[in-house]
């Protein structure tokens, strides 16, 4: 009988009042004393033996609890088949399953990569990738929530902020000024129906969301400043670079001066194919027979890792509950994840 990862999950959830994950990192460090633990900037690297060829990866930070909960977001309440709490799905369920699997195996050619600052810029994953830890790694399995499906691809993302300047004038004589808001409106109209030319068989077309528009100073003044954010999601095999160029061509049709600043970006990703992936898929189906291949709507730390090692994504939790009130995860999925990660660690021992 395998030890149960659920009490550990509850412990991680109860330590979650601090969204940065630092409190949880302390807890994890205390549990991993028997192994070599490298503490980098925004990451922990736990490695029991001299070589690491398989990496299980998760992030320890969460988004803030927010409003609308019917349970204590940091209570770790167990009710029927669910454990409730901020981070249950994204992604302490997976972290608890990974740690439990590591504790079962104790040693082997594997490592745990636990990052902080995933939700706010993936600095931990970038620092980890830059540290050289992933040299010679066969595979990174990221435990982001897939409902125990095998994540085989996701869209890329480009967040930009547009900024326009105007010339102030009295509100009674707008013809003497230049409105920053009118400039912005022209730009936003130019990208209202914007789509990238490529479509993906599973992801469909690109999407563009206007996140915010902020501008103007006073009701009786021609506005001198306006800012707006655009969130462009890029299906594979596109790239952030090509998407930005296409967006700039579309904006250029407005004929208005503007500045564009990149707020965040991540490349689209598709999983590798081959015998190693087949073995992982087989292990996943042993642990969770319903597992399908899934195209994911969200970006992950693959964007930082994939230049260094092939990545796959599989973890417990429903996508719809990520970042939502009443976040919870199925106990049955957490236990299946534990079995799955454990069989991976065994394969690389
Ligand atoms: Zn996540």
Could you outline the blueprint of secondary structure elements for this entry?
Blueprint: H1 6-14, H2 22-31, E1 36-40, E2 43-47, E3 54-59, E4 78-79, E5 82-84, H3 88-105, E6 110-115, H4 123-130, E7 139-142, E8 150-154, E9 156-165, H5 180-190, E10 207-215, E11 225-234, H6 240-252, E12 259-266, E13 269-270, H7 275-287, E14 293-296, H8 302-305, E15 311-313, E16 328-330, H9 331-347
Parallel strand pairs: 3-6, 3-7, 7-15, 8-14
Antiparallel strand pairs: 1-2, 2-6, 4-5, 5-16, 8-13, 9-11, 9-12, 10-11
Helix pairs in contact: 1-3, 3-9, 7-9
Bound molecules: zinc ion (ZN).
Zinc ion is lined by residues 59, 90-91, 118, 144.
Task: Give an overview in words.
The protein is α/β, with parallel strands linked by helices. The protein is built from nine helices and 16 strands. The chain has helices at 6-14, 22-31, 88-105, 123-130, 180-190, 240-252, 275-287, 302-305, 331-347; strands at residues 36-40, 43-47, 54-59, 78-79, 82-84, 110-115, 139-142, 150-154, 156-165, 207-215, 225-234, 259-266, 269-270, 293-296, 311-313, 328-330. It has a six-stranded mixed beta sheet, with helices on both faces. It has a four-stranded antiparallel beta sheet with strand order 10-11-9-12. Helix 1 (6-14) packs across helix 3 (88-105) and helix 7 packs antiparallel against helix 9 (331-347). The longest helix is centred in the first third of the chain and has 18 residues, at 88-105. The protein starts with 5 loop residues before the first helix and ends with a helix. Bound molecules: zinc ion. Zinc ion binds at residues 59, 90-91, 118, 144.
